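Sample pair:
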Amino acid sequence: MKYFTKEWYEACQAADWCLNMAVSKNAEEFSEEYYKDLYTRRRRAFVKQMKEEEGEAFDKIAAEVADMRVLALDIATKEVRHQLKAWCEEQKKLADAKEAEYAADSTKESSETFAGCELTGVEMKETTLTLTLKGNVKKAVFKNYKILKQEGYLLGAKWLKEEAYTVEGGKEYHILLRKSNGTLGYLTIFAEQLTILK
């Protein structure tokens, strides 16, 4: 992947995260009562999402959070919200820059055909690779293929974005997937021909 990388996807996800964050003086101190009240009223569980966020900038901000559970409910001190807002704006700039680079790349061949599809089957034969999908595409058949890169198990993965490039003898398909365990992974396939069955 040249453009729609794991880092691009994470930047997109983080770009707008803090926009709905509320400011509360109650977030300045650890309080079990305040947390329980918030949890009961809003019934939101973003702790898992927070644990998945990575990066030194975010970790530095998170070190200033008194109670991560309250932050997971989109409530922070004024200072933390200000820092997170700056971090989110930086993530948006990174994501926008990659999308602009991709739009300007004349070597790419774009198609949003597969976005959102779930991989439900993989059949490898000598000359064909068939991916069975759930979504707007039922099957993708790669003829005279070679898997150039595969990160992890494919079944259950969601197809997030792809880039296609013409290369000698065929095309390379660079695919960003969100695997069933929530992690991001790449799949890169060379093929002489791709047939899409809807």
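The beta strands are 22-23, 75-76, 108-109, 118-124, 128-134, 139-150, 158-167, 170-178, 184-197.
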